[in-house]
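> example.struct
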């Protein structure tokens, strides 16, 4: 659906200026100025329910994130499609290299902790189940997982068994660099379509792998997040880096089966499987697995 049609539905007969915003692959985001207000319209992509996305759950997560001062205010929702209209955040992107600075890691930890302490969400996100669902969805549509899948799934099962049952907290689950904005006061986070009740260490590990953090950075992140660094917690972050890369790899695989976008999802999946292989081949991996189960 083109943005002009949606804008006319939302603000009939009123003059609105809009421009596309970058950063998304499956969704389209538009900055809209109307009657002195500046908002962002987020138009969901085709067949995103096959990625496990529920637009009602996204709205609930976005409203919770706004209530704790991390996400943008939800202005309205385009029904029945479930497209969000949120307040535009004045700020700047956070460069990848800046994410590794102690002061930025502290600011990120503050925002992520606020989300984890937020009100419960109606949806659930478990990276272990998601990669299985993506593999099944892709296979049902004629795309077989790459040969690395069996190896990765074996390690994922070992991680899940070692860590055991875990408390559930509200999580973002897709902490890509493009989803962070520095508004000059705190780090804000956007794009809540994968959010759900889940494992806090998946959020932390997923953030880590998406920002190329090393062990020292993860220690600084944990210290800012929890006040200290327990060996089991650090091990969990390092292990969930693996699950973050596995999730991203299988996202690329399932997109090969369902997406009509002009994007090289094969290369995207391959790149993330290579990252996955590097994490799983780290000489310290088995020590982290043992520490996480302690």
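> example.seq
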């Amino acid at each position: 659906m083109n943005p002009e049609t949606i804008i006319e539905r939302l603000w009939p007969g009123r003059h609105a200026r809009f421009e596309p915003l970058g950063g998304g692959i499956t969704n389209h985001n538009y900055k809209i100025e109307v009657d002195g207000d500046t908002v962002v319209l987020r138009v969901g992509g085709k067949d995103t329910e096959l990625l496990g996305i529920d637009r009602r759950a996204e709205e609930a997560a976005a409203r919770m994130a706004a209530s704790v001062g991390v996400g943008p205010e939800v202005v309205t929702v385009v029904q029945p499609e479930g497209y969000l209209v949120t307040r535009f955040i004045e700020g700047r992107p956070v460069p990848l290299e800046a994410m590794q600075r102690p002061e930025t890691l502290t600011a990120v930890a503050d925002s992520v902790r606020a989300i984890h302490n937020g009100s419960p969400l109606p949806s659930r996100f478990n990276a272990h189940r998601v990669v299985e669902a993506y593999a099944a969805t892709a296979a049902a549509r004629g795309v077989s997982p790459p040969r690395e899948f069996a190896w990765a799934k074996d390690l994922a099962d070992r991680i899940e068994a070692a860590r055991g049952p875990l408390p559930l907290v509200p999580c973002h689950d897709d902490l890509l660099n493009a989803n962070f904005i520095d508004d000059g006061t705190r780090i804000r986070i956007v794009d809540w379509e994968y959010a759900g009740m889940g494992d806090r260490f998946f959020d932390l590990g997923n953030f880590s792998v998406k920002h190329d953090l090393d062990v020292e950075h993860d220690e600084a992140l944990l210290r800012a997040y929890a006040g200290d660094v327990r060996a089991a917690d650090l091990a969990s972050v390092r292990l969930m880096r693996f699950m973050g890369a596995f999730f991203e790899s299988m996202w690329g695989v399932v997109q090969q089966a369902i997406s009509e976008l002009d994007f090289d999802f094969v290369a995207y999946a391959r790149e993330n499987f290579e990252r996955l292989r590097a994490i799983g081949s780290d000489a310290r991996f088995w020590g982290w697995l043992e520490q996480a189960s302690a």
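> remarks
The two ends are 52 Å apart (CA to CA).
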